[in-house]
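Audit log entry. Action: structure prediction of a protein-small molecule complex. Ligand: zinc ion. The ligand was supplied as SMILES and no pocket hint was given, so placement is left entirely to the predictor. Protonation state taken as written. Sequence taken verbatim from the request; no trimming, no tag removal. Recorded inputs:
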Amino acid sequence: MDKLLKILALDERVRVYIVNDTETTNEAIRRHDLWPSAASVLGKTMAIGLMMGAMLKGDEALTIKIDGNGPIGMVCVDSNAKGEVRGYVERSHVNFTNKKGLDDVYTLGYNGYIDVIKDLKLKDLFTSTIPLETGDLAKDFTYYFAKSEQTPSLVALGSLFDVDNKAKVCGGIIIQLLPNALDEDITYLESKLNILSKMSELLKTYNNLEDIIKLIFNDDYKVIETMDVAFKCPCTKDKFAIGLASLGKEQLLDILNVDKKAEVVCHYCGEKYLYDEKDLQEIIKGVKK
Ligand SMILES: [Zn+2]
């Protein structure tokens, strides 16, 4: 099972989130038939989603939408405080082979925006939008945390793929300076940038996420929480039936008489729901009320 760690480091002046979402990424690959470049962008965005989800509490949830006007189009990820994530890209069959390192930029594009929508269970959703500056997700989210959340952060992400197009590793880390951070903490973290730039290799080498934390912070850290994380979509046939009902009685009768069935596909997880004549009649009955 994929894991996420919440950590306090440097005498509790720095907060760290680190996640390995390799299995989660492979589940997304299986569900959406993602090609590696598309899977890399979605896997990394889900890593960020999971880490930002871990910053929430209770039933709070968030959505990340990124559109860089690149080959994959829109990237959409939902996550929550329970370690659950789901996501999709507009076009899943995207792969570039000979452009190592620049892969994500080519795939995602860099002319667009990042939307983060938080559902903090208040009256209104909290939305913040920033322009996409580079198309490099780690750099753009570093910018997001500084600009939208006023939290100086370091973000590093990594992914590697096998010849069979499955993810070998995917994951990332967010290191945030707390208000009591010292100048020397910044200097210290700057001295670790070379380690952080090798996230893909680190995830491949170390199965245990804490070993990566040790490389960065030696023994000056403590694990606050270890979470299981996974791809999970809460969609059900009943929930989509509510959506079908909103089409109205007339259109539903049309579907019933002409097609005698309806199929709905969940964008987020690729699950297909089939409604036969009996199901459609039930839904129409509900609309009448
Ligand atoms: Zn679903």
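Audit: result stored. Residues 233, 235, 266, 268-269, 271 surround zinc ion (CB under 6 Å). The longest strand covers residues 167-177.
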